[in-house]
Structures are given as structure tokens and as C-alpha cells.
Amino acid sequence: MVLGLGTGSTAAFVVDKLGQLLSTGQLSNIVGIPTSKRTQEQAASLNIPLSTLDLHPHIDLAIDGADEVDPNLDLVKGRGGALLREKMVEAASSSFIVVADDSKLVSGLGGSGLAMPVEVVQFCWKYNLVRLEGLFKELGCEAKLRLSGDGREKPYVTDNGNYIVDLYFKNPIKDGFAAGKEISAMEGVVEHGLFLGMATSVIIAGKTGVEVMTK
Ligand SMILES: O=C(CO)[C@H](O)[C@H](O)COP(=O)(O)O
């Protein structure tokens, strides 16, 4: 079985569990396709056999976290910075299961007040930041370059050598597909964090237990 391995604090539990099941012989004959360098390192340290999309272009199942989940199982992802590889791996997967806690549930994407990331090339990133903010003016959008380092003094660089522009909305995005299309059409945009129509099911953990959402 070919498994897409997600990125983030929730997906890390899945990777740990896979490592444990493999080491105790409860699971065998799997190969993992990691969605980030971080996950690749974690999986390798647990002796999970790894491969790439080049060698395994068809993935049976991907399991990953999410930043926002709406009632249609559409998602915002990428606050952990891995959106490009996540989208490539999850789009190539026959099934895509999301694992999250109930703080991630929203009635409309962009509605949490937290970031919707867009990965952009470094070249003239400010030009694209201004254009992205302008695209969603009517939603009260504010665009910020993601920073890293102890004093947040330098731009965050993705595993693919790009920058991230985080979009903060005052109001939820009305038409995610239209928004995604407009963002992707911008020269210099590499990928955006709207994962639409991709999740097969979402497993949500809350104080009262676990709920499985399916379409
Ligand atoms: O998209 C992601 C990383 O790019 C993560 O899946 C998302 O940020 C959720 O992370 P966490 O489980 O740590 O809340």
C-alpha cells in the first residue's frame, strides 16, 4: 500500500503510529510518500520505507491534518508551510483522510481569522503580495509575508525554496473555486492553501469523542 504522509502536529501522530505498527509487525508492505522534509525525517527515523511521487505516481491513501474544515469537507491547509507537496501528494491519492480537532471546523473557509497561505516565488514577492491583497479587497483581506527566525526577522522559506504570503480575511471566502482559480492564474504564484473537493472523509476529535464526516 502506498501512503501519503501528512505534515503538522496532528499528522505527526499518524506517522508515529505507523512506525509503531511496523516495528511490532502489525503492519507490513507499505511505502510512504512524505509531504515535507520534516515528515521525511520523522518517517526515516521510524524506519518507515519511503518513496517519491516519481516512483509511485498513484497513492492509495493520504492522511493529513488541516487548518480549516468546512461543512463540504473543503479545507484550508498550509499553515505549516507544506501546502505545495501536500497538494501534489493528496491530489494523487485515491483516498484522502483528514485528521483534526474540532477547533478546525468553520462555517466558511477563511472564516477562522487565521492565515490562508499562498506559496509564491521569491522574485518580486511584494508585487504579488499587493496583487493578492487587491484580489480580495471586498473581503477585508490583509496580506503578510510569512516570517521566521527567533525575532521573525527573515522570510520563511518553504521546502521548495519559495516564500509564503499569508492572507487574513475579515469575512469568509464566498466561492472557493473561483478564488482558487484567480489566485492560481497569477504569474509567480506556485500554489494556494485551498484544498477543494479533495478530502474523502474528515475525522474530528472533540471533548465528547470522535466524529467521522463524509460527503
Ligand atoms: O497543512 C498543514 C501543514 O502545511 C497542516 O496539516 C496543518 O497546518 C495542520 O497542522 P496541525 O495539525 O499542526 O494543526
Automatic annotation (TrEMBL):
Regions that span the bilayer: none
Top-level taxon in the UniProt lineage: Eukaryota
One Pfam family linked to the record: Rib_5-P_isom_A
Enzyme class: isomerase
Catalyzed chemical reaction(s): aldehydo-D-ribose 5-phosphate = D-ribulose 5-phosphate
GO molecular function, a single term: ribose-5-phosphate isomerase activity
EC number(s) per entry: 5.3.1.6
Keywords attached to this entry: Isomerase
GO biological process, one term: pentose-phosphate shunt, non-oxidative branch
Gene3D superfamilies per UniProt: 3.30.70.260, 3.40.50.1360
Pathway(s) per entry: Carbohydrate degradation; pentose phosphate pathway; D-ribose 5-phosphate from D-ribulose 5-phosphate (non-oxidative stage): step 1/1
Matching PANTHER family: RIBOSE-5-PHOSPHATE ISOMERASE 3, CHLOROPLASTIC-RELATED (PTHR43748)
Family to which the UniProt record says this protein belongs: Belongs to the ribose 5-phosphate isomerase family.
NCBIfam families in the cross-refs: PRK00702.1, rpiA
Protein name: ribose-5-phosphate isomerase
The species this protein was found in: Gossypium armourianum
